[in-house]
Write a structure and sequence with these properties.
alpha/beta; Fumarate Reductase Iron-sulfur Protein, Chain B, domain 2; Rossmann fold; 5-stranded mixed beta sheet; 17 helices; 11% strand
């Protein structure tokens, strides 16, 4: 284990504040499912009392990479970075081969097909014509975008995956490869537009990225007078990788749309439980958190729940179906593009 990671692990004071915010711990209720417990195991590795085995590997994988423990940590310890680094140092040949770019694309294709079969209907008709196509502007289309209706009228920039799925599996080498390709492409454009909170957050945190070139699609809707087709009550699920500043911007946009009643609710930023492909490996935990999220949303009785991440949208639709709820879930980009621009509104 490298010295920087060892120092981070040793800096953990075992205060347990991560237990209050960890979504996995809410379901598992075990020490090994929360950062503090995982750090204790890693401390055992550092001291030579433990050897890296399947059990430790499983516990490190019990992480949604939501960054909530880092936000709650008095020492600002980056658990996601620690777990990714440790995984990278202990990857087996099979693990390396099962987490390649080719295999990842196959997984995403399978998930897209599954999604379209399971949720074939429910999209909103596009009505809003916003001009995204300014000179030298490119679209950073997320890997799961095709399945959800999150399509912007923008030229696809042919970017690589943001790299986060590889990073969290310990394939830091592939993450760096994706990062380099994306950074090189970003230099060619004046604007790069995102519609996935996770992609936007990941690319924004690249070392050396030209942040002034990165735009979220909602930036184009800030000064528009929008009107939805009929009166609706709307709630919003904040993805874990969306910062509060961006959430507040979206919240204000939705509150100012004619015919839209925006509803706040407790737990709007609780993790939905899907965490990329976490739900494919830890179905019970993901299902529990998805159902819990819908329960919180149902308490305020909205007609529609919106989000801004493909897997979050999958989670919401799964939870709605599981709870047999009579609400609909859409991506917020799809919802905004379904509104009309009200030219007569001051």
């Amino acid at each position: 284990m490298n010295k920087e990671i060892e120092k981070e692990v040793i800096n953990c004071s075992r205060c347990g504040l991560c237990m209050d915010v960890c979504p996995v711990y809410k379901y598992k209720k075990t020490e090994s499912s929360v950062s503090r417990g995982k750090f204790l195991q890693l401390l055992g590795l550092i001291r030579g009392d433990l050897k890296y085995d399947k059990k430790i590997a499983y516990n490190l994988d019990l992480c949604l990479n939501c960054k909530k423990c880092k936000s709650a940590c008095p020492s600002n310890i980056d658990a996601m970075k620690i777990f990714a680094t440790v995984k990278s140092e202990h990857l087996s040949f099979i693990e390396k081969m099962s987490n390649t770019l080719f295999i990842f694309k196959l997984k995403m294709l399978g998930l897209k097909v599954f999604y379209k079969i399971k949720y074939p209907l429910g999209r909103i008709k596009k009505a809003c014509e916003i001009n995204f196509n300014e000179p030298k502007t490119a679209y950073f289309k997320g890997c799961a975008t095709d399945a959800t209706g999150m399509r912007l009228d923008l030229k696809n920039g042919k970017f690589s995956c943001c790299g986060l799925p590889f990073y969290t599996k310990g394939r830091i080498d592939l993450y760096e490869k994706c990062k380099k390709k994306n950074l090189d492409l970003i230099k060619k454009y004046n604007k790069v537009v995102f519609d996935c909170a996770t992609c936007y957050d990941t690319v924004s945190n690249y070392e050396g990225v030209e942040k002034e070139k990165l735009f979220y699609f909602t930036d184009f809707f800030k000064n528009e007078n929008l009107c939805f087709q009929k009166p609706v009550k709307v709630a919003f699920h904040k993805p874990c990788h969306m910062n509060m500043e961006k959430y507040e911007e979206i919240r204000e946009i939705l509150k100012n749309i004619e015919n839209v009643q925006f509803i706040d609710y407790k737990g709007f930023d609780d993790c939905c439980g899907f965490g990329g492909d976490f739900f494919t490996r830890h179905i019970k935990t993901a299902s529990f958190l998805s159902a819990q999220k819908i329960e919180n949303i149902l308490k305020v009785d909205p007609d529609i729940v919106l989000t801004s991440c493909p897997t979050c949208l999958w989670s919401l639709k799964f939870g709605i179906k599981y709870k047999k709820a009579k609400i609909k879930a859409f991506d917020v980009s799809e919802f905004l593009q379904s509104c009309i621009i009200n030219q007569n509104r001051p």
